[in-house]
Amino acid sequence: MSRLSDLSYIKEVLTRHGFHFSKAMGQNFLINPGICPRMAAECGADRNTGVIEIGPGMGVLTWELSQVAKRWWP
């Protein structure tokens, strides 16, 4: 998971897959490894609640939310 907070790794993945993002179009991505865990911890979710993340970007916050919120296993 820590690689998703590494800016050089993110740029490499985006380039490899031909993705181009633009701040001018409102595309901003949370990748700070200190912020996302705090956001997940403070959002109020727990093992009894689910969360939906809209526009998950690279998935850093998604991963952190999955650690605190309810999960469904097939």
* Backbone shape: elongated
Distance between the termini: 23 Å
Percent strand: under 5%
Number of helical stretches of at least 4 residues:
3
Summarize the helix and strand pattern as letters: HHH
Output mean pLDDT. Answer: 83
Largest sheet: none
List keywords for this structure.
74 residues; mainly alpha
Task: Write a structural description.
This protein has 74 residues and is mainly alpha-helical. It has one domain (2-68). Helices cover 38% and strands 0% of the residues. It is built from 3 helices and no strands. It has helices spanning 7-17, 35-42, 60-68. Helix 2 (35-42) packs parallel to helix 3. The two termini are 23 Å apart. The model has no long low-confidence stretch (mean pLDDT 83).
Fold topology:
Layout: H1 7-17, H2 35-42, H3 60-68
Helix pairs in contact: 2-3
Quickly describe the structure.
The model has no long low-confidence stretch (mean pLDDT 83).
